[in-house]
Amino acid sequence: AMAVSPTLLLMDRNLLARKQNARLDRQNDVGWKLFGKVPLRENAQKDAKKTQKEYEDKAGRPSKPPSPKQNVRKNLDFEPLSTTALILEDRPANLPAKPAEEAQKHRQQYEEMVVQAKKRELKEAQRRKKQLEERCRLEESIGNAVLTWNNEILPNWETMWCSRKVRDLWWQGIPPSVRGKVWSLAIGNELNITHELFDICLARAKERWRSFSTGGSEVENEDAGFSAADREASLELIKLDISRTFPNLCIFQQGGPYHDMLHSILGAYTCYRPDVGYVQGMSFIAAVLILNLDTADAFIAFSNLLNKPCQMAFFRVDHGLMLTYFAAFEVFFEENLPKLFAHFKKNNLTPDIYLIDWIFTLYSKSLPLDLACRIWDVFCRDGEEFLFRTALGILKLFEDILTKMDFIHIAQFLTRLPEDLAAEGFFASIATIQMQSRNKKWAQVLTALQKDSREMEKGSPSLRH
Predict the structure, then answer these.
(1) What is the reported pTM?
(2) Domain for residue 58, yes or no?
(3) Smallest Cα–Cα separation from 281: which of 315, 322, 231, 323?
(4) 319 and 445 share a domain?
(5) CA angle (261 as vertex; 256, 262 as ends), nearest 5
(6) Which of 412, 453, 413 has its CA nearest to residue 326?
(7) What distance in Å separates the CA atoms of residue 442 and residue 385, rounded to the nearest whole number?
(8) pLDDT values of the chain reduced to their tens digit, one per residue, 465 residues
(9) What are phi and psi of 436, to 5 degrees?
(10) Cα separation values, 409 from 82, 390, 405, Å
């Protein structure tokens, strides 16, 4: 190895130290503060006045202090402007001064704007106050109604349910806290279904689901008249229909809090009435009942409700009886709304196009849920007649619009009603409908049409088969 003299080593160390010191000096420059390498040196921040003095010395002339107007303008460039400043402020120095007339005009315009703004604020405050008062009045009314139902009506149901006072309360809407109880009493239990029977039907339904999920094909004795394919189709349709029942609520779909309850009621019903099975639309009726009743009580109300003549005719797709209901509806349609009735006839718009969906779901799919529950309230009081009276009330409410539409637009409108319907106006429209034609009420007209239909079937061999 080559020997290095001490003198050379000392020179190298000095040279290296000078390079490191130079590097540190460069890092301490002001520019390095941008990169956060080191803190600024104390002498890096210069006083503003000192900087200005240096600039004046270099330029050879002192800078004049800005005028007050320039100061205002400069400040306004950086500060948010109010409406007052925008309107009342003088023009910039480099523009002609604003004439006195124009300044006065702008001031008047501004004052008018302030007055209008105050009026709007006052009107909005009055509107909010009115809304609050109406809400308080409604809450007080509901509270009083709850006490009346619980303390007077429900304990004496058999003697009070048909009284004038109760009928008026019914029309105003049953309070949600007692709605389920009132519905159960009004629908009744003619089928004498017990909670034990529901448990049996539900257990049978669960067994059937397990059987189909494992590929079994055993046929139960009581379902011997119905093919396995029909029963499987019913189960698949239930699953599909549940997923689209009140989708906006997100409570009946898979994973929702009421999914299993809805599935149980519909499955149990297919076991209870295999001759009817599951029909599309039933899920909406069961869902509304679940929102107001316990599962077993909802099943009892559901089964008895579907056993009513009108519902049974539609869910069993009894074409002859359905046509009779449509014919009865048209009698009262022509009686109440002759102009719209003629327009529908001219456009060949038959009642089945819009009535089927309304009747199948008892309006729960077509109307907002709170409004549909109000319809159910009075339906439980008046029976099937009110379903058709409600239909006429809808047509009455939109008569002016419908008379200007053609077939396609009428059908589209009636199958997708507006979502912002107000209950007061809606029920006011229904109240104008008179369910009496030539001194005959709904039940009499329907019975007469059914009799005519039977006579026609007897007299015409082609209608027997």
Answers:
(1) 0.70
(2) no
(3) 315
(4) yes
(5) 85
(6) 453
(7) 6
(8) 444 455 544 455 554 555 555 554 555 544 444 444 444 444 444 455 555 556 556 555 555 555 544 444 444 444 445 555 555 566 677 778 778 888 888 888 888 999 999 999 999 999 999 888 888 887 888 889 999 999 999 999 999 999 999 999 999 999 999 999 999 999 999 999 999 999 999 999 999 888 877 765 544 444 545 555 566 667 788 988 999 999 999 999 999 999 999 999 999 999 999 999 999 999 999 999 999 999 999 999 999 999 999 999 999 999 999 999 999 999 999 999 999 999 999 999 999 999 999 999 999 999 999 999 999 999 999 999 999 999 999 999 999 999 999 999 999 999 999 988 999 999 999 999 999 988 899 999 999 999 988 888 776 543 433
(9) -150, 130
(10) 50, 21, 6
Integer Cα distance of 72 and 55 in angstroms? 24
Closest C-alpha among 394, 399, 388, 434 to residue 415 = 394
Report the amino acid identity of residue 355: L
Looking at 289, 305, 321, the residue that finishes a domain is: 305
CA 183 to chain CA centroid, Å, is: 24
Dump the DSSP string for 369-393: HHHHHHHHHHHHHHTHHHHHHHHHH
Q: Cα separation of 164 and 35, whole Å?
A: 86
Query: Are residues 322 and 298 part of one domain?
Result: no
| Last residue of one domain, picked from the residues 305, 338, 367 | 305
Answer yes or no: is 72 within a domain. Answer: no
Same domain, 317 and 429: yes
Asked if residue 328 and residue 425 are part of one domain, the reply reads yes
User: Do 391 and 417 share a domain, yes or no?
Assistant: yes
Domain range for 148: 104-172
Q: How many residues does the chain have?
A: 465
Q: DSSP 3-state assignment of 347?
A: coil
Would you say residue 421 lies in a domain? yes
Greatest Cα pair distance in the chain: 138
Structure tokens at 354: 């819009």
Q: Please, are residues 99 and 79 in contact by the beta-carbon 8 Å criterion?
A: no
In a domain, 131, yes or no: yes
Query: Structurally, how many domains does the chain consist of?
Result: 3
Q: Same domain for 299 and 312?
A: no
